[in-house]
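Appendix B. Chain record.
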Amino acid sequence: MRLFITGATGFVGAHVARLAAEQGADLRLLSRSTSNKKNLPANADIVTGDLRNPFAFASALQGCDALIHVAADYRLWVPDPAEMYQANVEGTRELLRLAREAGVPRVVYTSSVATMGFKKDGTVVDETTPVSEADMIGHYKRSKWLAEQVALEAARAGQHVMVLNPTTPIGALDTKPTPTGRIVVDFLNKNFPAYVDTGLNLVDVEEIARMHLIALERGTPGERYILGGENLTLKQILDRLAAITGLASPKMKVPHGVAMAFAFFDETITGKLRGKEPRATVEAVRMGRKMMFASSAKAERELGLHVQSVESALRAACEWFIANDYAPEPPAWGR
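Structure tokens predicted for this chain:
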């Protein structure tokens, strides 16, 4: 099978590409010229390009059996939001059009659980929970919501497109790192003195990768599938990390109002005045007011998703960050 994969230099995409290579797929991987390519599998055909101009690499879609579109501009703070919409929304629209014209028979579009209708009370949501564009907080969520609508519209028009909605992936190879990876890195570096009352659904990134390839065979066009694992509060995640590393878990809970004030200050000083990415953003704090708890029952039934403890994935993340010098080895590590 010849697969065209976008986002293979990213966290989820790297795992998808590596697993596909292990299974013998012939890979064409989209990469920007400036991307770090060290996690790409050997012998893959690297296609240089940018989602903001898919037409430039359209010829690489010819002869492919499937497109797995993982790439996205994933930032919770961006100096120019127009760039994010150009990549995530218009880039997806154009890429799907080019795939149709190239005769690519199957497409998996990687959306996000962020497009679901989460509640403040911790209600566990699924693909049927009512949600609208008005529920999308910030440019990242809104751009992913709009891109997902583009994919679903293409499916309604007859294109073989399935939508996957991973929750919060964790594991090795998180080079950037992602916002969730930063939680682990900050914890390992003892830069997590307090926490807020929020919740996430954590999932092993390797299981997300497996589901991408399974979806090509078993997924239903026009359907959305939440790919998740365990629903955990942030405090529970930090306690898990403490048990794995031997480091202390923070005991002080910060009210959302205090966190919002700090985020506003950091975003103003670090982001707007210094032009650097802030450590905390208003968008992230606003998102944190909702418990992002989700059910993956549909993916379990239809795709064979294995919902399991994320203990091993958290450990893999810690081991990888330590081995790659993101953080020092904890004193009690390995005891």
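Further analysis of this model is presented in Appendix C.
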